[in-house]
Amino acid sequence: MPTDAFDMAIVHKVFRSELHDFPALIRSVTAGDTARSAVVGSHIELIMAALHHHHAAEDELIWPKLHCRAPEFAEAVARMEQAHRAIAVADAKVKSALTSWARTADARLAAQLLEAVADLSARVDEHLADEERNIVPLINQHITAEEWQQCAARGSEFISRKNFRLGLVLGGLTFDVSSADEARRLLSHIPRLQRILIRVFARRTLMRYRAALEGSRTAAMSPEPSALQIIENFRTCELTTMSRDGSPQTWPICPLLLPDGRFLICTSIGLPQKAFNIRRNPKVSMLFSEPTGSGFDNPGAVLVQGDAIAEDRIIADLRENRDLRRLFEQVCARQPASAFMSSWLGRQLFPFYYVRLAIQVTPYRILHWPTRDFSQNPRRFDFEELSHVD
């Protein structure tokens, strides 16, 4: 019976997303901060191990069968095998640089690691696109559902009882890039006990993992943080909009800074006063002035003034795209009480909590008070610093 390898594209999303995040993680480590380089190094090792075993499963269980059952496509299958060999070479270069860098946090080694990661990521991107376009249809036609399940099991063989938590992390990453329908289909192929464990523990395990990964970034910050560090690490800020009568209305929010310099916010559809105000008057401000939990000893403050757009589209699934997923993860990491709301039980009891509207803020003025002395004139912030590699 032919299979439906829909899950191939989902797994590939995880690899693309995580590989693309490697450069930002590496750059977030200051020279000599071996505590953080060890945390980042462990994360990179986890993703690369998952990629290696994913490819090993295909090499052992899929390519030989396709050579026999679809000989007319031998050239395409051989191209997959060659790509795996090239990726293995690039993988080895990353591991070589990673081992030394994770131990020393040396700036020169970081540059070598970034170069190796860029090469690996480019090769993986090209290969995954080729595989999805030309090989997945062959798998659907020539590989049985049972054989495909065997391949999936082989790909996760490196997860054992000793590192089961990492399996939950990978499961959480997979379901975070899945739509609600894709998640349902994925779970239907998993044994009952594992399905229950994933539903109950995967998301909260991923949140704790992400919090630790981001938390180690805070420890690396300088005692007098820059405006960008304040924006990226303060737990909350104050969003101010103008009400109908012209008076200001303020809410605590946790915005996500996007790579292009805009900010992403979400609000509930239940009386979305933020959205109502913004649609009448798009001028808003965001004040980053509360440093609790940021890890900074002597923080400043940042005021962002911008134009906001409140989208009409209702978001029923906060995992539907990468930016929304990152915003959700950031909120959960910075507000641990959100762990219950993100659990399976919380979703069943409060489904309305996840129905949202997106708000995007485009800054036109950013002011920075390095010492939080608001009697002093602030510094104007360079917008070029907001646009960052993601």
Automatic annotation (TrEMBL):
List the SUPFAM superfamilies.
FMN-binding split barrel (SSF50475)
Which residue intervals define the domain Pyridoxamine 5'-phosphate oxidase N-terminal in the entry?
228-308
A Pfam family that the UniProt record links to this protein: Hemerythrin
**Database matches in CDD domains:** Hr-like
Q: Domain of life of the organism in this record?
A: Bacteria
Which InterPro entries does this chain map to? Answer: Hemerythrin-like (IPR012312), Pyridox_Oxase_N (IPR011576), Split_barrel_FMN-bd (IPR012349)
- Ranges of residues in domain Hemerythrin-like: 12-139
Instruction: Fetch the Gene3D superfamilies from UniProt.
Output: Electron Transport, Fmn-binding Protein, Chain A (2.30.110.10), nmb1532 protein domain like (1.20.120.520)
Would you tell me the protein name for this molecule?
A: Hemerythrin domain-containing protein
- The source organism is Mycolicibacter heraklionensis
